[in-house]
Design goal:
The protein is mainly alpha-helical and 105 residues long. The protein has two helices and two strands, in the order ααββ. Strands 1-2 form a two-stranded antiparallel sheet.
Amino acid sequence: MVQRKKRAGVTLIELLIVVLILAALSAIAIPRISQSAHNAKQNACDTNVDVINSAIEMYNADTGSYPSAMSDVTGSTTYFPDGAPTCPLGGTYSMNADNRVTCNH
């Protein structure tokens, strides 16, 4: 009886199954990764707003009055020695009549 040697290797069907599994996993993972990056930037912006609002309250505690412009606080090296925070989403921070900071992104 003639014995056939088994060839070690991967068949085309097995390779296609692996490619399909990888495509399905990437179709699930890529949108979640991009959404989490946006969420991280949004959280950083919210934190910056909170930090600027805290600096405005510190300015009020130091001087006894609220600043007339947000630049009185953000331009000061007392409150922001490394410079004023910037919005990671490309927006700008502004102070409203209630001395609260918002972002327009």
